[in-house]
Design brief:
Elements (H helix, E strand, L loop, with lengths): L1 H16 L3 H13 L1 H23 L2 H7 L1 H28 L12 H4 L13 H14 L2 H10 L10 H29 L1 H4 L2 H27 L1
Length: about 220
């Protein structure tokens, strides 16, 4: 069992650090809503892993793999969600166009917000960030298919399938939180530079473009 766990940890680490929608969403959240919200988004993504893990344990991911209609429907929903997130980022970049030559004054109330590194507290913001991360993961059927094809290879013969599956999912979720948490802290430490209007606008354009491109790629794959 230990050998299987180590092998899965190596593979899961490579999957975790590969750029994708999760990374873009957490980066965008860290820039727009601060450290706390970005960490909530990371935990939402981790919760999505458990949703897919449970689904795989009861055979729902097998249904997605077998039913093209169900798979495509979920992919279309995920593509639309990614495009919507990207458009929101691009709209934010456009709204900042006229502020490139200025540096926003610090908000005293925001600076006193506990644990958020100077980002203003938004009512319900943590829950919205968590929900956004959760939806980003749950609406990506590739996660379910990867679990369906990958996890069985690391379940030793005779081991309890459900318990071992959830153990492996836990490893993946923890790795995801550590990686995305590291990204969040890096953005937090560089906030003095990243919050400059010109830099922030470019980052919004970049993350928005990536999210729209990811959504378009998913939609094109479904259409083809």
């Amino acid at each position: 069992m230990l050998t299987s766990l180590i092998g899965f940890t190596v593979v899961a680490t490579l999957l975790t650090v590969s750029p994708g929608p999760d990374f873009a969403v957490v980066l965008r959240t860290a820039l727009g809503s601060g450290r706390r919200a970005a960490l909530c988004a990371a935990f939402g993504i981790a919760a999505g892993c458990f949703v897919w893990g449970v689904a795989g344990a009861v055979g729902l991911t097998a249904m997605l793999a077998a039913s093209k209609a169900a798979y495509d429907a979920l992919r279309i929903a995920g593509a639309l969600y990614l495009v919507w997130l990207g458009v929101q980022a691009l709209r934010s970049a456009r709204a900042r166009r006229g502020t490139d030559g200025t540096v926003p004054a610090p908000d005293a109330a925001a600076a006193d917000a506990p644990g958020d590194g100077g980002a203003p507290a938004v009512p319900g913001g943590s829950w919205r960030a968590f929900r956004g991360g959760l939806l980003t993961n749950v609406l990506n059927p590739k996660v379910g298919v990867v679990y369906l094809s990958l996890l069985p290879q690391f379940i030793p013969h005779g081991a309890p399938v459900v318990a071992t599956t959830m153990l492996l999912v836990t490893v993946h979720a923890v790795l995801g939180v550590l990686w995305l948490g590291g990204v969040t802290l890096a953005v937090h430490r560089a906030r003095a530079v990243l919050q400059r209007p010109r830099v922030r606008r470019r980052l919004d354009q970049a993350t928005g473009g990536v999210l729209v491109a990811l959504g378009a790629a998913v939609g094109f794959e479904v259409a083809s």
